[in-house]
Design brief:
DUF397 domain-containing protein, DUF397, 4-stranded antiparallel β-sheet, 1 helix, alpha+beta
């Protein structure tokens, strides 16, 4: 994962210390938190789209 080009979210802090980063491959998407760059979530593009839609619609619920 270190060879990927990581892109910081435009909603992140200007200092870059508190952000979500994303990197794209031909078939997958990688996500990480800038505070813990070794912890990477990798998923297919369709799965990321479904996750984002679930977050937008609130269908994931608030179970904690």
């Amino acid at each position: 994962m270190s060879t990927l080009k990581w892109i910081k979210s435009s909603y992140s802090e200007a200092s870059g210390n508190n952000c979500v980063e994303v990197a794209w491959t031909q078939t997958e998407v990688a996500l990480r938190d800038s505070k813990r760059p070794a912890d990477v979530i990798v998923m297919g593009r369709a799965s990321l789209g479904a996750l984002i839609e679930s977050l937008r619609s609130g269908s994931l619920g608030t179970n904690r």
